[in-house]
């Protein structure tokens, strides 16, 4: 009985080993696209996804995949530019910019500082969190603003000496249901 059990265990181990080798060969043969998709759920920062981040430096490259071996798709030169993190793999973040361009960046070039881009042609900045309050400034499309709070449909923003409230849906850099205090 003991020999039969050991023999069955040996056969099971061999079969499992053969399956693992076959799976490994399949992933290698399938190429980077399948391997890249498989990596999306592995490791990461532990922070919620999706989330917004900003560029920490004035020169940052976006790559086609999560590694330096992937080609550069785009180079950014705007510190504070908001990006949406869609996925993580180790130290790499899959991000989307305000124009919809998707690629990968190292987490070390990204900051948790919150900024937002104005998406409307011209958006009103109010003196309080009410759309009926006084307008203190007008922000043009693509203006980069510091995002200070977003408790409701109005977000508190700042740029230079101007501090006020703007409609959430006029900004790119905050999730629709996200509450910032």
Keywords for this entry:
181 residues, alpha+beta, SH3 type barrels, five-stranded antiparallel sheet, 14 strands, disordered N terminus
Word description of this protein:
With 181 residues, this protein is of the alpha+beta class. The chain has three domains: 29 residues; 72 residues, Roll (SH3 type barrels); 57 residues, SH3 Domains (SH3 type barrels). Helix content is 20%, strand content 38%. It has two helices and 14 strands. It has a five-stranded antiparallel sheet, with no helix packed on it. It has a five-stranded antiparallel sheet with strand order 13-12-11-8-14, with no helix packed on it. A two-stranded antiparallel ribbon has the order 2-3. A hairpin with an 8-residue loop joins strand 9 and strand 10. It is elongated and about 50 Å long. The protein starts with a helix and ends in a 9-residue tail after the last strand. The N terminus is likely disordered.
């Amino acid at each position: 009985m003991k020999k039969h059990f050991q023999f069955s265990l040996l056969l099971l181990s061999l079969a499992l080993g053969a399956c693992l080798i076959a799976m490994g060969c399949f992933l290698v043969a399938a190429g980077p696209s399948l391997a890249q998709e498989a990596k999306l759920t592995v490791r990461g920062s532990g922070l919620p996804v999706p989330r917004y981040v900003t560029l920490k430096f004035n020169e940052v490259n976006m790559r086609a995949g999560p590694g330096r071996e992937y080609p550069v798709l785009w180079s950014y030169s705007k510190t504070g530019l908001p990006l949406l993190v869609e996925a993580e793999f180790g130290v790499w973040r899959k991000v989307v910019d305000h124009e919809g361009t998707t690629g990968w960046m190292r987490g070390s070039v990204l900051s948790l500082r919150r900024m937002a881009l104005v998406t409307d042609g011209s958006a009103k900045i109010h003196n309080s969190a009410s759309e009926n309050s006084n307008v203190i400034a007008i922000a043009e499309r693509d203006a980069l603003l510091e995002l200070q709070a977003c408790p409701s449909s109005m977000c508190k923003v700042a740029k230079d000496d101007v501090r006020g409230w703007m409609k959430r849906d006029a900004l790119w850099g905050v999730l629709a249901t996200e509450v910032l205090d």
